[in-house]
Specification:
By secondary structure, the chain is α/β, with parallel strands linked by helices. The protein has helices at residues 2-10, 13-18, 32-39, 46-50, 63-74, 86-100, 115-129, 153-181, 203-222, 241-248, 251-264, 268-281, 294-306; strands spanning 54-57, 78-81, 105-107, 134-137, 184-189, 228-234, 238-239, 266-267, 288-290, 314-315, 320-321. The chain is 51% helix and 12% strand. Helix 5 packs across helix 12 (268-281), helix 7 packs parallel to helix 8 and helix 8 runs parallel beside helix 9 (203-222). The chain binds NADP nicotinamide-adenine-dinucleotide phosphate.
């Protein structure tokens, strides 16, 4: 029974339902001219000359995507930062360039649910770095934890449009590009539902993430014998800005799940360096890189007896959650 519960938690049931905030979709078409203004600092073709790994991460203006970007940069890679909001990309790019140098950080806006923008993200990143070794389909949104029929159509459209349709477009573009360049590894971000677990109120998000696992497995087969590899990433329970915002509006719901979050959850800065290391050392197609395992859950339970954590502690100076102040959330 306990193992079953831990498995359910490991499949990220907790965090995703908390990601209930509706991300306003269609912020919208990022114009080519705005996009160009983000590009001026990149040095075209640098990747060719240095042999550094070039990595595109969708939805990397904040949260897990930003944390991954920072971790890859710390490990000597060059990274494309992306998302829908140009302002947030600018903030993320400036901060990362100040830390790692202008030549290794490139920003380009892209709504993954718009195929032309996805193709432009590949083309411009390729032009900036001369190659794309790794493409991470990280962009994702969630809906409030409600029965499917209570959700507005535009919310469902946003969740499926980003998590499934967008990830599918990105997979098409990335695999085609990688086949042309003769190498590359695509990673898809899983979440609640990927392992088939069902949680009331999470039908839309869960269905999209369940489909991500199916799609990835199918792509592993379809790319067999080619130079392209396809794998998955699973971050476990991560306190992101979206969760923080969600609970600021709904303190009762926060109180109900805070205990579990503090035991089983982690900050972006804890999870993403681990994921980045596994990605960089992985050479196998079909790999399932998962931060949270039943073994880790047991360890976290034991640790919780000795060490009480408060991932939601308020910072007195700013009256915001300490987690919110993490560098991974600067884009928000
Ligand atoms: N947090 C967790 O506990 C958890 C657990 C399991 C799985 N995951 C998965 O991990 C991934 C990242 O989640 P997170 O918690 O880091 O979320 P987050 O903090 O809300 O960040 C989401 C990122 O995706 C971007 N984005 C959203 N919709 C997009 C679209 N249509 N096109 C392009 N970019 C888009 C956002 O920027 P814009 O809004 O500017 O576009 C932002 O950069 C998601 O796939 C999520 O399902 C998270």
């Amino acid at each position: 029974m306990a193992i079953k519960l831990l498995k359910a938690i490991a499949s990220s049931s907790f965090p995703v339902f908390l990601l209930g905030s509706v991300i306003l979709r269609n912020l919208h078409i990022q114009t080519k001219s705005i996009a160009k203004s983000l590009m001026h600092n990149a040095i075209p073709g640098l990747g060719d000359k240095t042999g550094m790994k070039s990595i595109v991460i969708t939805g990397s203006s904040r949260g897990i995507g930003y944390g991954l970007a920072e971790a890859f940069l710390q490990r000597g890679c060059q990274v494309t930062i992306s998302g829908r909001s140009v302002a947030n990309i600018n903030k993320a790019v400036s901060r990362l360039q100040a830390k790692f140098g202008k030549s290794v950080v490139f920003g380009y806006p892209c709504d993954v649910s718009v195929p032309e923008q996805v193709q432009a993200l590949w083309d411009e990143s390729f032009q900036a770095f001369g190659k794309i070794d790794i493409w991470i389909n990280n962009a994702g949104v969630n809906h409030p934890m409600k029965s499917l029929w209570e959700l507005p159509a535009e919310t469902v459209q946003s969740v499926i449009g980003t998590n499934l349709l967008g990830l599918t477009y990105c997979s098409q573009v990335a695999i085609k590009g990688m086949l042309e360049q003769g190498f590359g590894h695509l990673y898809n971000m899983e979440g609640h539902g990927s392992d088939g677990q069902i949680l009331n109120g999470m039908a839309g998000y869960g269905a999209s993430k369940s489909a991500v696992r199916y799609l990835t497995k199918a792509l592993v087969r379809e790319t067999q014998g080619t130079a392209v590899k396809v794998s998955t990433l699973s971050p476990g329970i991560v306190i992101t800005k979206l969760i923080d915002d969600q609970f600021r509006e709904n303190p009762d719901a926060l109180e109900r799940v805070k205990g579990a979050f503090n035991i089983f959850g982690d900050r972006v800065e804890t999870v993403t360096p681990w994921l980045a290391d596994r990605v960089l050392e992985n050479d196998k197609s079909g790999a399932a890189i998962a931060w949270f395992t039943p073994q880790k859950a047991v360890w976290k339970l034991i640790r919780s007896v000795l060490n009480k954590r408060d991932l939601f502690a308020l910072d007195n100076a700013t009256d915001t959650y300490v987690g919110k102040l993490s560098s991974a959330d600067i884009g928000s």
